[in-house]
Amino acid sequence: MGRQRKRKGDPVHGWLAVDKPVDVSSTRVVGILKRLFNAQKAGHGGTLDPLADGILPIAFGEATKTAQWAMDCDKEYVFTIEWGRSTASQDKEGEVIASSDVRPTREQIETVLPDFVGDIQQVPPKYSAIKVAGERAYDLARDGEEFEIPSREVTVYEAELMDTADADHATFRVVSGKGFYIRALARDLATALAAEGHVSQLRRTRVGALDQDNAITLAALEALAEDREALKSRLLPLETVLDDVPHIAIDAGDAAALKQGREIVLLPHLVEQWRSEAEQFGSERLALCRNDGNAVALGEVRAGRFQPKKVFQL
After folding, report:
1. Could you point out which of 91, 123, 163, 279 has its C-alpha 20 to 30 Å from the C-alpha of 132?
2. What average pLDDT does the chain have?
3. How many CB atoms neighbour CB 230 within 10 A?
4. Catalytic residues
5. How would CATH label the architecture of 14-73+209-240?
6. Which of 198, 188, 196, 194 is nearest to 94 (CA)?
7. Domain spanning 244-311 has what CATH number?
């Protein structure tokens, strides 16, 4: 048997809420931070367009096992629509495909905005990472291919008109669930108002529990490049994105069993505690087992037993 190849870098674990600047891709941010932290493994919990700024969740090490929860949690955006021109990509860099002299008033916008709150049908933008017949939609769009993307149900929890600085611009705040596209909302709002428009500014202000209060800029992180411990002090626990998952406190023996991938029997009072929290969070079977304040495993509670699905080697 050949020797196992040793990973390059340090075993860094946890989440980082990065305040991404405009004109930097999410992939590039991951590369910069992996180098700064000298981390063995890193990834992001949901792409943020290069033209957008704001909260980009970065997962290191074992936290990458919880990336799906960051992608699925609710997100808050503040964005501005510029009226008068629609573009192919629904943002300011796309080719202009239509123009209009229509400038919606505040009253007109506030009349149609409630139609975009709740569970709604939305067609993702053609310039998106959605796959169509195995190809990325943005690749097909750039190649001039004709194709259609089916609509899908998305959830908008809140939508408000914040400001109309002038006749050409309207600024909104939206809280949405997974799979929602702000650029598609701008397109659909313009259509509902018999106008043309595109997103001229976009900022993501929150991803679940990661927000502007616990975020740090790339510039601030790069200023700490020579102080690895100061960098690591900015990391948040991997369970940060699991704030709506019931927690179960277990002892060292059960923790050792879970780390070997074995299920454990839960004491009745732990099952009752989990059931109470599960009802509160709307979770059917999911739970996070912790020992001495540290995450051990994410799994399911079934018939008084905990079955691990993702085990964290911290």
Report:
1. 91
2. 92
3. 12
4. 49
5. 2-Layer Sandwich (3.30)
6. 198
7. 2.30.130.10
